[in-house]
UniProtKB/TrEMBL annotation:
CDD domains: AAT_like. The lineage of its organism: Bacteria, Pseudomonadati, Pseudomonadota, Alphaproteobacteria, Rhodobacterales. One of its GO terms (molecular function) is transaminase activity. Residues 31-383 form the Aminotransferase class I/classII large domain. InterPro entries: Aminotransferase_I/II_large, LL-DAP_aminotransferase, PyrdxlP-dep_Trfase, PyrdxlP-dep_Trfase_major, PyrdxlP-dep_Trfase_small. The keyword Transferase applies. It comes from the Bacteria. Keywords: Aminotransferase, Transferase. This is Aminotransferase class I/II-fold pyridoxal phosphate-dependent enzyme.
């Protein structure tokens, strides 16, 4: 016997992609533009910090993060967003943001609201963990379209009052994956006001926050602090994966008001998997350093400019505001991905694999997602092949 709660899940994006493409031969040397795994160099001194603290592998690591790591994270939030946080009451380390995004629902969302089954709202397209988290607590995952018409940011105020009245949490990703859209200060203000009106929490997935063109994206906790809102209304999630090219270090964090953090920490006491102490030492050093982040961001700015130059004349092309994905319009996302692979060797992800059919449509199906994570020359070649294969008659 197995539980039925996950029995209707669609196949995950990566098995679907392999099934779609691997039955065909690639049309050239493989250029991987599917997964958002950064390929820039991480700071060389990270290995020195790990080596210097290697004795910590002999100890069980602290569950909430070492005092040094939590202080470094609080320092980052203060520098970046101007929000003063108590490292002991407002911050907890994570083994990557996905852990936190999943467990926040477990720790913070009630079993019912107003006597009804709870609802959890999320953008469509979306990061798949949002949906599985909602299903895990027997809540209804409600997909809110993020389309070109609404600037690729979901309009949660358009959801019916009946659903909003039973909503316990809203997931929002800014900068958005896959579209690269950035929530403005006004967007956050309106969402916080909606959350206060209908009494739900905002789970702000901000893991792409440090990859942008000119102006740093405004943060959810930043706006809550500016407005004097209860910090328990907002929960933010960050990691070193994109910011510092360290996806394998698995250093993330969650931050919120003290009441939220008490519940999240209590769950992690029973179900958490803390980073080994040498890795926490390395993470603290990386969160404390901004020079390598600026260098990394400059490399992505060069790739934005490449994409604009190569694809600027493509009808419907939208230059990403932030992040490292291209969200490119096509007539048929699966057909475009197959054509591109068979004729050029470039692998991209059909946009429909990142979204769900909802109200008779899938808002991702008219797009492909291409990750600009490889070195500049390889990225340039990949973008040129996409243009020549899909957009030149």
């Amino acid at each position: 016997m197995y539980p039925e709660r996950f029995s209707n899940l669609p196949a995950h994006a990566w098995p679907r992609l392999r099934a779609l493409l691997d039955v065909h031969e690639g049309g050239g040397p493989t250029i991987h533009m599917t997964i958002g795994e950064p390929k820039h160099a991480f700071p060389a001194w990270v290995m020195d910090v790990i080596s210097e603290n290697a004795g910590g592998f002999n100890n069980y690591p602290p569950n909430d993060g070492t005092p040094e790591l939590r202080a470094a994270i609080a320092g980052f939030v203060q520098r970046r967003y101007g929000v003063p946080l108590d490292p002991d009451r407002n911050v907890m380390t994570l083994n990557g943001t996905r852990e936190g995004l999943y467990n926040a629902v477990m720790a913070l969302c009630p079993e019912a609201k107003g006597g009804k089954r709870p609802a959890i709202l999320m953008p469509n397209p979306f990061y798949q963990v949002y949906m599985i988290a909602a299903l895990s607590v027997d809540a209804d995952p409600i997909m809110v379209p993020a389309t070109r018409e609404n600037g690729h940011l979901p309009d949660f105020s358009s959801v019916s009052k009946d659903v909003l009245n039973r909503t316990t949490a809203v997931y929002i990703c800014s900068p958005a994956n896959p579209q690269g859209a950035v929530a403005s200060r006004e967007y956050w203000q309106e969402l916080i006001a909606l959350a206060e009106q209908y009494d739900f929490k905002i789970f702000a997935d901000e893991c792409y926050s440090e990859i942008y063109r000119d102006s740093p994206p405004v943060g959810a906790l930043q706006v809550a602090h500016e407005q004097g809102a209860d910090l328990n209304r907002v929960v933010i999630f960050h990691s070193l994966s994109k910011r510092s090219n360290l996806p394998g270090l698995r250093s993330g964090f969650v931050a919120s008001g003290a009441e939220n953090m008490r519940e999240i920490q209590q769950l992690r006491n029973f179900a958490g998997t803390p980073l080994p102490q040498p890795l926490q030492a390395a993470a603290a050093a990386v969160w404390n350093d901004e020079a390598h982040v600026e260098e990394n961001r400059a490399l992505y700015v060069e790739k934005y400019e490449l994409a604009d130059r190569i694809l600027g004349n493509v009808p419907g092309y939208a230059s990403p505001e932030a992040g490292f994905f291209l969200w490119l319009p096509v007539e048929n996302d699966e057909a475009a991905a197959v054509k591109l692979w068979r004729e050029t060797g470039v692998r991209v992800l059909p946009g429909g694999y990142l979204a769900q059919d909802w109200d008779g449509s899938n808002p991702g199906q008219g797009y492909i997602r291409a990750a600009m994570v490889a070195p500049k020359a390889e990225t340039e070649r990949g973008i040129e092949l996409i243009r020549d294969c899909l957009y030149r008659s």
